Structures are given as C-alpha cells and as structure tokens.
Amino acid sequence: PRNAIHLYEGDLPDNLELGSTIAIDTETMGLNPHRDRLCLVQISSGDGQAHLVQFVPEHLGGRGYGHCPNLKALLQDSSVTKLMHFARFDVAVLQHYLGITLNSIICTKIAARLVYTFTDKHGLAYLSRELLGIDMSKQQQSSDWGSPTLTEDQLQYAASDVLHLHALWNKLEAMLIREGRRDLAQSCYDFLPARAKLDLLGYDVSDIFAHR
Amino acid sequence: PRNAIHLYEGDLPDNLELGSTIAIDTETMGLNPHRDRLCLVQISSGDGQAHLVQFVPEHLGGRGYGHCPNLKALLQDSSVTKLMHFARFDVAVLQHYLGITLNSIICTKIAARLVYTFTDKHGLAYLSRELLGIDMSKQQQSSDWGSPTLTEDQLQYAASDVLHLHALWNKLEAMLIREGRRDLAQSCYDFLPARAKLDLLGYDVSDIFAHR
Ligand SMILES: Nc1ncnc2c1ncn2[C@@H]1O[C@H](COP(=O)(O)O)[C@@H](OP(=O)(O)O)[C@H]1O
Ligand SMILES: Nc1ncnc2c1ncn2[C@@H]1O[C@H](COP(=O)(O)O)[C@@H](OP(=O)(O)O)[C@H]1O
C-alpha cells in the first residue's frame, strides 16, 4: 500500500531515518493537558509512512512515558523542523507529558491565519480540501484515544493527520512568501514554545499580552 | 529640581547620552494607532531627567514625523534596551508613525503578569504604589495630547510615566528571578515586535494563536 501505518508502543524504534522536517500530531483524552493524558504521537517524514507511538499507562501493563529516548531525542533535535497543525496544543501536551521543550516548530494553522484571510476557516480538513483536494474524515477525532486497542478507523484517522502535512505546508509557505508574511509567521512560530508554557501555567485564559 | 523635564519638538537633540537602558512611553490621541496619532514620546535614562519629544503636524506648523533621525536611531539601536509599561501598544504606535521596528524590549506589564499572580491589578499606578510607594496621579491620562501647547500638568504626567520605570523594573526583575520565570518573560518580550505588527494588521481582535 502507498500509505503505510506503523504502530509502536512507548517509543519509536531505533535507527528510524525521518529526515529534516517531520510532521507531528498528537491524540489525547481531551483538550486540557493537565487533565487529559497523551495517548498517541503521530509522525511522518512526508514519504507516505506514518509512525504512531501509542502510550499505554503502566497500570495497564504499558511502558508509560518514562522510556522513550528515541522519540525524545527526535523531538528535542533542533536541527529537525517540526511541522504541526495548531502546534500550540501539541507542543504543550508533549512538554507536559514528556518533560521536553520543542524548538524549530512551524505551524500550518498560523500560516493559514496569515494568508487565508478571506475566510475564517482554518481547520485541517478545510485546508486539505481547498489546497490539496483531499477529503479527510474527521469522524474519529473525538473518539476514545485512551483505549489500549485502537481501531483500524482510529489508526487511519491518526495517520491522515500527518500524512499530508508536508504537501499542505508547501502550499501555505508559497502563499506566505507571495504575501510577504514569511518573517512575521516565523516570529509567531518562534514564540510557540513559550506560548505552550504559558498555556500550561493558565495564561490561555488570561492573555499575557492583554491590557487587562 | 531633582526631576527635570525637557521638551523638544519633532526630534531629540543631538548628542544626548542616555545609556544602555531607556524608559519609553508614548501619548496618543487614543487607543487605535490607525486612527489616533502619536503626539508625544517620553524617554528617560533613569537619572531623574525626562526627555519629551512632541510631534506637531505639518499643517499646524510643526515638523511632523519626517525629521527625527536622532529619535529613530536611538529606538532602532538594538544595543539599547527599551523599557516600557505595556510595550505592546507603544511599539505598535512607534512602528506605525515612525516606520521603524524596535528590538531589545522589556515590559513591566508582562513581568508583573508573570509574578504578581496574586492580584489582577497590573496597572502602572498600582505597581508604582505597591513596589515603590509612589503615588502617580492618572488624571491627565485621557487629556488632549494633540494640543500644540501642552499644560504643565500634562508634562508632569507624561514625565512621571518614565521617571520611575527603572526602579519598578529592578523590583520586578528580582521577582522574576525569584520565581524562576525570567526566561519565560524574555520569550514574551522577544515576541513583542511581532505582536505589535500583528496588532496593526488587525490580529488584536482575532488572536493569531487561537484555535478558532
Ligand atoms: N479548543 C479546541 N477545539 C478544537 N480542537 C482543538 C482545540 N484546542 C486544540 N485543539 C486541537 O486542534 C486540532 C484541530 O484543529 P483544526 O480544527 O484546525 O483542524 C485537534 O487535533 P486532532 O485533529 O489531532 O484531533 C485538537 O486536538
Ligand atoms: N485598551 C487599553 N486600555 C487602557 N490603556 C491602554 C489600552 N491599550 C493600551 N493602553 C495604554 O496602556 C497604558 C496604561 O497601562 P496601565 O493601565 O497598565 O497603567 C496607557 O498609557 P499611558 O499611561 O501612557 O496613557 C495606555 O495608552
């Protein structure tokens, strides 16, 4: 099959070569990182292969978050660009559960907000349809990602979130250059690690930059 | 008098030595940089002297914004730290009216938000009272700063906004270090030039980092 899905538990395998730009997404039990645990990390180098790392808690017989040196090394390697959609959330989750700080991030949501100004739709499904002609089913988005046995539909969904991100990025990057907003986008990406830290501290509700 | 106020029109004088950290504030006709013009820029090196640059439009016989090489050079000098309270606004105004990008910014409002978490009061008057025991009158804050002849009260008010900022900064910086949030604060300051650009583009209303 052109698109292959590889599922691992607790860490990436040794010696996986993923290149200089990796697409990343996460699935969690919900939208509050303090409450809702990280269940899955999806990674693709953009070659049609999706690498899925599932985290199973120790009390369910899994390895938990404590033994993922390969994944941590990859995520902390600042020579590797991490491509995400709405990175703000995934970065906070990864920081909270793996205890790492990510750098060299780029985000298709921020890029879309800076160039797709003629619409207020900047969701991944919308952008994939508009820019790539790809229809993504978002049906599994709010399914039970904490299940130790993920369904075939869940795996397909999780993979689809990273498989086309490089192609989407290429389109958005070209538009950023066209509109003269690439530097501004870069300044926003550069702030994402701090934005995620602030979110974990509660500054998602009271904006640190607000007057009141 | 211990505190001296120097008023200039259109630019700073030549050869003014202001050191490596300058306090800056601005007064405008209102809170919308696209609508409300920049009237006054206040600067202090923290030595009790306030340097006030008033901008009088050309149709009123003034020099307008076109001839302020000394002020622009100072503001664009990245070896000079620019200390402001709620820098987000002043940076946007200066960027818009003087056509310059400011760097090396620090902001007492952001610092206060990161350490004065036990209150939601982070106004300059409140912080000056709490941390320095200084009572600032905020009476002139919403006066007519576009008047070609500023009153003595206006000049005193404008000066007071920069005269104590270094002292306030020292207190807040010590608290940032105490609470282990100095790096996080720095990441926020670093984002301020982009935050100001985004504000001028209209991303003050629809947050660039928001999910929707
Ligand atoms: N308040 C919120 N509402 C919806 N999705 C949110 C969210 N905060 C973070 N997200 C994340 O943003 C992603 C959806 O982004 P978009 O709506 O732009 O396509 C979701 O990821 P998944 O698609 O991996 O579940 C979800 O986890
Ligand atoms: N929405 C807003 N409401 C009030 N002040 C605002 C504002 N946006 C920007 N400001 C600026 O923030 C400063 C007040 O900050 P604070 O309330 O923290 O003391 C004011 O400067 P001035 O004091 O120079 O007039 C004002 O110009």
Question: Can you offer a commentary on this structure?
Answer:
The structure is a homodimer of 212-residue chains. The first copy, chain A, has 212 residues and is of the alpha/beta class. The first copy, chain A, has seven helices and six strands; from the N terminus they run ββββαβαβααααα. Chain A has helices spanning 69-76, 87-98, 108-115, 124-132, 152-163, 165-178, 182-201; strands at residues 4-9, 21-28, 38-44, 49-54, 81-84, 105-107. A six-stranded mixed beta sheet of chain A has the order 1-4-3-2-5-6, sandwiched between helices. In chain A, helix 2 (87-98) packs across helix 7 (182-201), helix 3 (108-115) packs parallel to helix 6 and helix 4 crosses helix 6. The longest helix of chain A has 20 residues, at 182-201. The radius of gyration of chain A is 17 Å and the shape is globular. The termini of chain A are far apart. The mean pLDDT of chain A is 96. Chain A binds chain B through residues 86, 88-89, 109-110, 113-114, 120, 184, 187-188, 190-191, 193-195, 197-198, 203, 206-209, 211-212, and chain B through 86, 88-89, 109-110, 113-114, 120, 184, 187-188, 190-191, 193-195, 197-198, 203, 206-209, 211-212. Bound molecules: adenosine-3'-5'-diphosphate (2 copies).
Provide a quick synopsis of the model.
The structure is a homodimer of 212-residue chains. Chain A is 39% helix and 16% strand. The first copy, chain A, has 212 residues and is of the alpha/beta class.
Strand-helix topology:
The structure is a homodimer of 212-residue chains.
Chain A: E1 4-9, E2 21-28, E3 38-44, E4 49-54, H1 69-76, E5 81-84, H2 87-98, E6 105-107, H3 108-115, H4 124-132, H5 152-163, H6 165-178, H7 182-201
Parallel strand pairs in A: 1-4, 2-5, 5-6
Antiparallel strand pairs in A: 2-3, 3-4
Helix pairs in contact in A: 2-7, 3-6, 4-6
One adenosine-3'-5'-diphosphate is lined by residues 25, 27, 31, 85-86, 89, 109, 122-124, 141, 161 of chain A.
Pfam family, one (chains A, B): DNA_pol_A_exo1
Domain 3'-5' exonuclease (chains A, B): 3-177
Organism (chains A, B): Bombella pluederhausensis
